[in-house]
# Entry
Amino acid sequence: MPGWRRRRDVEIVAIHEPAAARRQAALRTNIRVYEDLDLLLAGESPDFVDIASPPAYHADAARAALEAGAHVLVEKPLCLDSSTLEALRALAASRGRLLFCVHNWKHSPVYRAAFDAVSAGRLGELYYCMLTRLRTQQAGGAPWRVDPVIGGGGILIDHGWHVFYLMQWLMGGRAPRSVAAQLGIFAPGVVDEVADLTATFAGDGLGYIHLSWRAPVRRTSAMLYGREGMLEIEDNSIRLTSRSGRREQLPVIEEPDNSYHPTWFAALAEEFEAAIAQGPQGPIAQQNQHEAATALAMLEAAKASHAAAGTPVALGPSGSGKSGNC
# Structure
């Protein structure tokens, strides 16, 4: 809501909230509230629908909105399996509507500064990208994040999607070739709370990812290096070190770290509006779709690799994962 309210050319006309307790909170916004999504779609005919439910509900809501003729913005993960994603993409194409995933970390000032430095060639040919997310618990303590049925559950889904699209973006859009993973599941839980992954990329690039809900501190960090330099990110600060040894603190102005990031979302909302203006075949929509499909393929490959005791899983040209050494 804070993010959308920064967009003066957007009016939020209705909220769908099936949970009675949360409907009471929604009613306090002075926006029309519906218990039933189909009634909302029929009664309001919205231009777009923003889906912010737990992951297990994304696909059905997106399908209903697309069938009603609305553009769709979906919180990550867009959906939970590749066959569902292909069906949703086909439906969106048949309706001439946008299916767009919230990749809001691309609008973080610190990661935007990193991307700009890489794009400007300040690291030279990029060899390596490491992304780490340390958390002491699931975001906000939300119980659905540890429920494999209601939420789609687990840190790989909660944080993995973010680092998958970020890594692909920072690596210059290079396609991942394989993923190897080990997941930590701790009794009495049933979902992964720690994930350790390595990825290979076209052009001999390497990636490393560590995610944890079991860390004693909260920390977000990254490190990228190439032929000419190295970038180090620690929470909201970023430092560039050149091959000559010269160090430079890159300027960024960042909002306080929290789970909502309204400034990032406002920028994402602007990107979504621009994608609608370009159309589903425009470059913004096509890049987002490619990132989402690749993120889902990496997520599925990581789960398959863990099930195969960490054996690398190759990603084919279509984004599908195939078990095997590589």
